[in-house]
Amino acid sequence: MKNQPTEKNQLHPRNSHRSGYDFDGLVVACPELKPFVFTNQYETQTIDFSNTEAVKLLNKALLQSYGITYWDIPPTYLCPPIPGRVDYIHYLADLLATNNNGIIPTSETVQGLDIGIGANCIYPILGNAIYGWSFVGTETDDNALQNCKKIISHNPHLIDAISLQLQTEPRFIFKNIITAEDKFAFTICNPPFHASEAEASKANLRKINTLQNTKSIRPELNFGGQNAELWCDGGEIKFITQMIFESAKYAKQVLWFTTLVSKKDNLHWKF
Length: 271
Prior knowledge:
The protein is globular and about 55 Å long. Helices cover 34% and strands 11% of the residues. By secondary structure, the chain is α/β, with parallel strands linked by helices. It has one domain (76-268): 3-Layer(aba) Sandwich (Rossmann fold). It has 8 helices and 7 strands; from the N terminus they run αββααβαβαββαααβ. Mean pLDDT is 86; it is low at 194-208 and 214-223. The strands form 2 sheets. The protein has a 5-stranded parallel β-sheet with strand order 5-4-3-6-7, with helices on one face. The protein has a two-stranded antiparallel ribbon with strand order 1-2. The longest helix has 16 residues, at 82-97.
């Protein structure tokens, strides 16, 4: 008998992925995933998470439970792990509830600003599916925005819920995006982790070696990722510092400015 996956207690209590992946159900939702599913040494169904195609198809299957009938990303673009992105949305909902008498606001009148939406459109998809929020997604990469546009057009319920905006000056985050008339309940961001391409490649190789328990593999990005998605000059600290600096100008137009912080040591940084 196959062992049932243990509950992932580190995930938010409302996260539907706490019980792990139901691969039998996911294969029904996305038959293309089936060749990538296998039973590991612990008699548990899984996939090779260092295989970018397998991870992309897993995401495609998972997103069907969020009402997404079409989802795809071009090769080399970031393919985000869904459970972690869902966690961010739930914790953000808890934060919004603190300004709403303890009640999570759930409607398209709650508008968020996704800084660096990428080609995957993941935060607006999840935020709209789970809580009904609407989003403006920004990007410095027009090719990524075009892919988001394709995802949105193939899922008609997203057309009025997600709008896209190109940031024409990459050194800025909110400038050119937030206008005098805009009001946002929150900003959301998954900032570039690394300070250079070399640093990103080194970190990714460590991740793949951990996944496959071998050092004799090609250093290919596990979840993909373009330059602006994975690294920027100064890395995460500089990006978040710039965000904090710019946020002061828009303090009356945004209720909560939020971002992921990928490196624990950076939480002690004096921004």
